[in-house]
Write a structure and sequence with these properties.
33% strand, homotetramer, alpha/beta, 8-stranded mixed β-sheet
Chain lengths: 326, 326, 326, 326
């Protein structure tokens, strides 16, 4: 088989900016329930990280009237890789232009996906340096284990909604050089969901068909925990904190992720998850294709997918002002 | 910081051949205690795999008078990557030459490390196709979960002993294009242990100074389990099966791996381990350097390293016939 | 508060006899999927045990035309306790009479609950002695850990359906001297579910209102696993073996048990579960009372209770030939 | 076999009072590292509890010049059981007399063991009522899960040192009506360690021979966690907090407890542990006897017992002022 990873230019998913109408409630949730640490504030934004995220931040919360995703960014493998990739994006006409960067990272190239999701690429970054009280005992981790709330370790992946899944899949493959590891193809041949990766993780970004045909909406962001037991304990902690648990813990059939979905205070879906020792090591991994019939079986152990999982996004459809294709 | 991963030519550690004077006992151990599956036999060799190893085999056991490591192999990222890398090896004078391949994979280029460890690179491989009775319920895993013994998931890494650690480190960096994630540097400046990776795993190969200064010996092979709980349960199972537990379960300070070391029937050290959600995603990861003083603290939670861990290798020093540098 | 445990005469739930129309399939399920061990056969019955059950058996499977529960038994705290308790039962008119015992235990006193469930009490028992190949490495466990299938540890509890929950609750309290730890009371004051214990476990028997008002039906038997992680792994193993997973893994709000329900081949519901370190140590524990409103919240983390959980019993209602009260 | 549990008068281990020269440091450790909650202060004492301890407190820390154990208490099964047991103690000449009780419990009868350990029995107690901000989401647990530090669930057991192990064993059996579940008997016939229980837990109190022959010293107190994974995570948290880890995590051969021992700030040994689903349900459980040869094998998976485990007690032997028998 042919290798399916066409480029090593993208190093990893770096951060996501979420827009929240309840900034301080959201910050409180991510710090005291999720166990994250604040690494800075600027303007209407608060920057946060998990205890083993190596960069300045992996989450940027920005005050807004409506929930949504401000942008998300990948770090590239090198300065040259950044230039190479920007050229591809520009040539294809998706580019917006360079920004001076943000707290914690250098110049970033902004662009939008085929579905209108704002993205950035950058290479120059600020490695997190823990202050004395947060220094870890073992120097090969970014920060001291917080032992507070859910204790999320690191940003894992994010999930988008898309009006046109196939176009977005081609964008991630051809423009960003990521590879498809799994996908859902309906009986009519339409792609309904795609999982893509730039690393040995089995996915860094996933996207599924928007139930309303809206463009560019956001589904969820996921932070990784070290074990399934920690995901279960997270459920206990969410329960104690009055956090809305949408579904889980359970195991996805697709990607076999052990998942738990909740809503943060402004209504944005957040996942904590564990993948065990599963990695995609094969250079010629061929996409696993799931049929409609297979999807009807529900999740791995039979849980039926909850309705809101197909409809609830950021912004909520009631507040969405763009074009709808359905 | 500069990116430290200079090449993406190597895709992943593919398999290791172990030499055993007790072939059938060793096979029985890997199948009934470790929970692996036999995928073929040829001549004096038996081929085995974990339930989520995607290739024909990740372990080849070959009958021998003395324990040792026959060879280990990396799969490359593409056919072109194989050619590129072979040229570097040949030009540097480490090459032995092409072989026709083996059960389960195509033509392989053989060479030796600076320390004399036999290695191979290849690209063409045979994806494992589970027979009906071993078909998994979820089509994104290689084989049905066996529910037998320790149930190792996949090959994770291997560990070598080396007469000259620095030379071997340079070999893995310059000739194979792997990057160093952690290392031990003695007070006199000598490198005593190095961990290198070709993937987002924090290491695929490790090597430490041979206590006797012998060249090319083997330390252990490691299979991955999905959780620390499974490593603990593995300890129960090894105990019940009369398997010699050398040390663990405990957590390494270096790499933070949750480890458990046992000897298979012929005396070769085997590890089962879990790394949680730890990955090296940063393209410019700088090697973590551990000092002598730090090493004296023992493992992460204070366990002192057992003496045999520094001395026992394959072949045992009593049977080693090569040059000693100490 | 007053102590709620009125008697120490019952030592623990000892075994349950299940009636199966598919005896060999059922035996195969309990041995190869659940990981139990056969300890004897007699007539149409096969006797089984978990790896840390100390008696001859905790499960007796008997061939039958229809699924059902043949009887279940408690072991008493002493020979005197047996006599004391038999007198209470006889005096109250529930007694059937003495039997000579069965494989693995001595004389048993048979009786029926208010709802018609056949029960027995006995004291004399045969401690399991593992044959050489099943001897454990640690002499404080009954048998070697099997490392096969789900590896259930020991019988934990069983769950009955009842036409009259309150009458059955009084029976367990007044006649058997067990205490109520939790219960469901409907808005109309009716008891809909009760959990009773004779030990420090938070329940040994539970019973809920039969949806059809049938008398004496059986809901499920539960075996204990050592961790929630093992319950999750059990789900993987059930999936691989084509076992019908009814619901779970998830955490009950009531009793906080981490549960997983499946059907064995003849259709009898079987649970594997873990309770963590939860015990009822308080001698004056007062029953936790759950309201209809609280029950509507679903399980601990929000899972809605599946419909079949309220209706499916043994025998199935289609095969039930007794009186119905609804 | 005969039933070995001669009395049901004792309900469970209720609390322990530890004497600490560093009261505030100790309080900080138990609250912020162990995750306990303060439930009161009086004089030089601070009262604490785990999140599922149902009484006012299970730990009382009292300022003192030297570390030690102030007293420990069992709650009885009823008011009558208390009177019965006090009579036995008084008749045997071990009694000290009644106290008015303490914060959280009613009148207590004080006495000393054969080895001089101060003990109390009481029945009347104050059930913990969580304030609004600590109310649990599930009403069948005592308090909200704290999600802070190690999150110990409940008091599990304590361990004493004794100059005369056999005398103390007889005291627990004959005077307190507890039963022996396991013990160590040396080749010379001397008992070197005994584990006794009043419940279905496999032990509530353990005691081993004092290395120095000192009388009445204290070895450690243990709090229960819900899983082995939580014990491992506790090790990470102790490490991050600079807490001295003496030994573990590992599994004891005796009782199979998964243990982790640390020293709180004043030097008193504290354990966090998990027993899985192991319980002693058999009414006629016969003590497991471990020989010297068996003990030399070390812990379950081969860990050698650390020297300080045999010598370090409270008070430290340097500060001990009583008689030594060796």
């Amino acid at each position: 088989m042919e290798p399916t990873r066409r480029s090593f230019d993208l190093a990893h998913l770096a951060h996501v900016e979420l827009l929240t109408p309840k900034l301080e409630d959201s910050v409180n949730f991510f710090i005291n329930v999720m166990g994250m640490t604040e690494s800075g504030r600027r303007g209407d934004s608060v920057y946060l990280r998990g205890w083993d995220d190596y960069e300045h931040h992996t989450l940027k919360l920005t005050a807004s009237n409506v929930t949504g995703m401000g942008h998300f960014a990948f770090r590239t493998s090198s300065a040259e890789a950044l230039q190479r990739r920007v050229k591809v994006i520009e040539d294809a006409g998706f580019g917006t232009g360079w920004t001076d960067g943000d707290l914690g990272h250098g110049p970033a190239y902004a662009f939008t996906t085929t579905d209108g999701h704002p993205m950035e690429l950058y290479y120059e970054t600020e490695w997190y340096k823990a202050p004395a009280e947060l220094k870890p005992s073992l120097k090969n981790q970014a920060m001291r284990f917080p032992a507070r709330g859910v204790n999320v370790r690191r940003l894992d992946h994010l999930n988008l909604l898309a009006a046109d899944v196939s176009a977005l899949r081609q964008f991630f493959e051809d423009i960003l050089g990521m590879r498809v590891t799994e996908k859902i193809v309906l009986d009519n041949g339409q792609e309904a969901g795609v999982w893509v990766t730039a690393t040995n993780k089995s996915y860094d970004v996933a996207f599924t068909a928007d139930h309303y045909g809206a463009r560019g909406r956001f589904h969820h962001v996921t932070y990784a925990l070290d074990s399934r037991e920690e995901v279960l304990r997270a459920a206990d902690i969410f329960l104690e904190n009055g956090v809305h648990i949408e579904t889980g813990p359970h195991k996805h059939a697709i990607q076999q992720t052990f998942f738990l979905y909740v809503y943060e205070p402004s209504g944005i879906r957040v996942e904590v998850a564990n993948a065990g020792a599963r990695l995609i090591l094969a250079p010629d991994w061929q996409p696993i294709v799931w049929t409609e019939a297979e999807r009807k079986k529900g999740q791995a152990w039979g849980l039926k997918t909850i309705e809101s999982f197909h409809t609830h996004g950021s912004p909520p459809i009631e507040e969405y002002t763009g074009p709808k294709t359905k």
